[in-house]
Amino acid sequence: MNAPLSDREKALMGMGESRLRKEDARFIQGKGNYVDDIKMPGMLHMDIVRAPVAHARILRINKEAALKIPGVIAVLTAEDLKPLKLHWMPTLAGDVQAVLADEKVHFQMQEVAVVIAEDRYAAADGVEAVEVEYEELPVVIDPFDALLPDAPVLREDLVGKTVGAHGARKHHNHIFNWQAGDKEATDAAFASAAVTVKQDMLYPRVHPCPLETCGCVASFDPVRGELTTWVTSQAPHVVRTVVSMLSGIPESKVRIISPDIGGGFGNKVPIYPGYVCAIVASIVLGRPVKWVEDRIENLSSTGFARDYHMTGELAATADGKILALRTHVTADHGAFDACADPSKFPAGMFHICSGSYDIAAAHCSVDGVYTNKAPGGVAYRCSFRVTEAVYLIERMVDVLAQKLGLDKAEIRSKNFIKREQFPYKSAFGFEYDSGDYQTALDKVLEAVDYKALRAEQAALRADPDCPTLMGIGLVSFTEVVGAGPSKICDILGVGMFDSCEIRVHPTGSAIARMGTISQGQAHQTTYAQIIATELGISSEVIQVEEGDTHTAPYGLGTYGSRSTPVAGAAIAMAARKIHAKAKTIAAHLMEVSEADLEWEIDRFKVKGNDAKFKTMTDIAWAAYHQPPAGLEPGLEATYYYDPPNFTFPFGIYLCVVDIDKATGETKIRRFYALDDCGTRINPMVIEGQIHGGLTEGFAVAMGQLLSFDKQGNIQGNSLMDYFLPTAVETPMWETDFTVTPSPHHPIGAKGVAESPHVGSIPTFTSAMVDAFAHLGVTHFNMPHTSYRVWQQLKSSGIVS
Amino acid sequence: MSKKMVAMTLNGKSVEEAVEPRTLLIHFLREKMCLTGAHIGCETSHCGACTVDIDGQSVKSCTHLAVQCEGSDVKTVEGLANAGALHAIQDAFYKEHGLQCGFCTPGMLMRAYRFLQDNPNPTAEEVRHGMSGNLCRCTGYQNIIKAVLHAAKTIQQQSAVAA
Question: What fold is seen in the domain A35-137+213-261+268-301?
Answer without folding.
Answer: Aldehyde Oxidoreductase; domain 3 (3.90.1170)
